[in-house]
Structure prediction request, 214 residues.
Amino acid sequence: MTIDYDQAREKMVNSQLLARGIRDQNVLAAMRKIPRHLFVGDYLQDQAYDDRPLPIARQQTISQPYMVALMTEALELSRQDRVLEIGTGSGYQAAVLAEICDTVYTVEKFPELLDQAAAVCRQLGYRNIIAKSDDGTLGWPEHQPYDAILVTAGAPQVPQPLLDQLAEGGRMLIPVGGDLIQELKKLTRRTDRIVEERLIGCQFVPLRGKHGWQ
Ligand code: SAH
Prediction:
């Protein structure tokens, strides 16, 4: 039996995103367009539009569609924003960001995952994703400051280098808490302070590195 991926994707957007209050038209358009099934292994493609995260290589995961949408919407992106993602994983979130913004920087710890993600993104025609394999808890100082920083792995605390690389008015989304469950936080840099909001409980794989889990 062949699967109608376009239909599965439309259903995902309606039942998982719109029905739960995602309203950002750029986010909805990006997720209506991007073939999420190409970011997972062949054996999982028929589950790519299900309402949950899925395993990728190196015991990592591609986030649940709703979580991708919620985080992206909360970043309040404009086209000119300079965006940094920590934890490229499958490359799916980077593709969503690349549909919305001109330039996306992304850092992944495992070279093997980065290579795979870069190959899929290249195949889909994204020329605006700039990626490297490194410890993302250090940020990517060469291209700072960032208008938006998205961390897609759970941290014990907010890594200071990421805060330092956030532009004035910049937003950071990051899961903070224990190694199994965390709270999704949104930090906004104002002139003289950082404003912190707590969005929802979440479950991400651990952010491992100098300013993350050891
Ligand atoms: N955004 C991804 C989800 C990735 S899961 C997607 O759309 O598929 C989290 C990723 O963070 C994993 O690939 C993991 O290897 C990576 N990671 C963990 N610690 C990291 C670190 N210190 N720097 C960069 N990436 C890290």
